[in-house]
């Protein structure tokens, strides 16, 4: 029943798909090694979830999530049965600890448990623990650094239950922020002028939360979650035009795609009134930019760092027309939308246009799919 939570840091047997269970929907990515050509996107699909089925990373309605995952699997056409799942960062506590070198695996486990009990605010029986030896301490060869991860057992079990009820095996349990980091680090490495030591700020703007992380050479030096997301724009549309939430959500997305030049004629019919851009969207973009600049200020005041070299935007809201421009101009930092599939070849069935329009929302799913190559 329990996944091998050890696999948080370990490898997994291929073929494996990444499955991101988010409040707005479930997303699947399958990657393959295409040899000289690098990575190939084999499958990539999304299935929306009814509102409330997943909230703040918690699975509130198991049946609805299972139904969506089943539809997603069918739609994607994948034959893989092993999945990598992500835990919401808020449900996992991670902590670096120092232990004496030379312990046996068994002694390590005992030590980790006893250290963990000091940091974890709930009973260890309710917790699933994992750890990974980082390596010897720089300052002393007699000590090793160990990364400890603890999650509420029930939160893990919920995700495993979704996988099993959908005929899948939860082979890798990761943390969403780790998966996003893996995907964005890969993208950043392909960006011209990407030097070692580059300070990257990643803003994942989702439905109800924005996850901010600052990364240097693949290491997270600071992170924070802000209660800001695309739901509030949808609510603004609801208020301004008297639409139901679902309708407002659909029109918001259709409008964005159309404005970005990706929309179909069918979507054009689901348009919003002419005043939308100035009266509703613009104020939201202003608040989004303010969230970004505030987070950056907070990063500078609470750490020794004094610069950010590059901003990446991801999550469903990254596609909002005008967001990248306002963030770049308010911060005066080189900014880009993170396209996790950048530099990958596409399998015949994968539509390039969809990846371009929707790519940033697949950052976590893509990072999870990358676990196949550990
Ligand atoms: N094309 C789009 N244009 C504007 N907003 C979008 C688009 N696609 C998704 N969104 C918004 O992004 C949010 C969901 O982003 P996502 O990263 O999937 O969030 P979460 O991880 O919180 O579920 C929703 O508010 C949704 O309306
Ligand atoms: Mg998400």
Automatic annotation (TrEMBL):
> Where do the SHS2 domain residues begin and end?
16-184
Any one Gene Ontology BP term: cell division
Q: Which PANTHER family would you find in this protein's record?
A: CELL DIVISION PROTEIN FTSA-RELATED, ETHANOLAMINE UTILIZATION PROTEIN EUTJ
Can you name the source organism?
Pseudoduganella umbonata
Q: List, alphabetically, the Gene3D superfamilies matched.
A: 3.30.1490.300, 3.30.420.40
Show the InterPro entries listed in the entry: ATPase_NBD, FtsA/MreB, PilM, SHS2_FtsA
UniProt-listed Pfam families: PilM_2
Identify the CDD domains for this entry: ASKHA_NBD_PilM (cd24049)
The protein in question is named Type IV pilus assembly protein PilM
């Amino acid at each position: 029943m329990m996944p091998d939570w050890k696999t948080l840091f370990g490898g997994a047997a291929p073929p494996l798909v990444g499955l991101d269970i988010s409040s707005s929907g479930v997303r699947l990515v399958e990657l393959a090694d295409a040899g000289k050509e690098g990575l190939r996107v084999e499958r990539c699909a999304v299935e929306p979830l009814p509102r409330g089925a997943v909230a703040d990373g918690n699975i509130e309605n198991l049946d609805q999530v299972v139904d969506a995952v089943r539809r997603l699997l069918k739609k994607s056409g994948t034959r893989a049965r092993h999945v990598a799942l992500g835990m919401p960062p808020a449900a996992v506590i991670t902590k670096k600890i120092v232990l004496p070198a030379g312990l046996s695996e068994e002694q390590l486990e005992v030590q980790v448990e006893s250290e963990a009990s000091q940091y974890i605010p709930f009973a260890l029986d309710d917790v699933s623990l994992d750890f990974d030896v980082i390596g010897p301490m720089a300052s002393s060869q007699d000590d090793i650094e160990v990364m400890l991860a603890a999650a509420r057992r029930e939160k893990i079990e919920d995700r495993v239950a979704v996988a099993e009820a959908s005929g899948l095996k939860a082979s890798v349990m990761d943390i969403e922020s780790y998966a996003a980091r893996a995907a964005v680090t890969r993208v950043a490495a392909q960006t011209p002028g990407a030097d070692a030591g580059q300070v990257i700020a990643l803003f994942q703007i989702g439905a109800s939360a924005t996850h901010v992380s600052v990364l240097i050479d693949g290491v997270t030096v600071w992170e924070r979650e802000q209660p800001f997301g695309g739901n509030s724009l949808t609510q603004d549309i609801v208020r301004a035009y008297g639409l139901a939430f679902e309708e407002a959500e659909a029109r918001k997305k259709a409008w964005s795609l159309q404005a970005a030049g990706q929309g179909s004629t069918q979507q054009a019919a689901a348009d919003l009134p002419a005043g939308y851009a100035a009266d509703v969207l613009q104020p939201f973009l202003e608040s989004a930019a303010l969230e970004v600049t505030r987070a950056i200020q907070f990063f500078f005041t609470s750490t020794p760092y004094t610069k950010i070299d590059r901003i990446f935007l991801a999550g469903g809201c990254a596609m909002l027309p005008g967001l990248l421009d306002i963030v770049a101009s308010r911060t005066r930092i080189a900014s880009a939308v993170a396209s996790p599939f950048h530099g990958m070849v596409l399998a015949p069935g994968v539509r390039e246009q969809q990846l371009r329009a929707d790519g940033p929302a697949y950052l976590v799913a893509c990072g999870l799919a990358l676990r196949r190559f550990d």
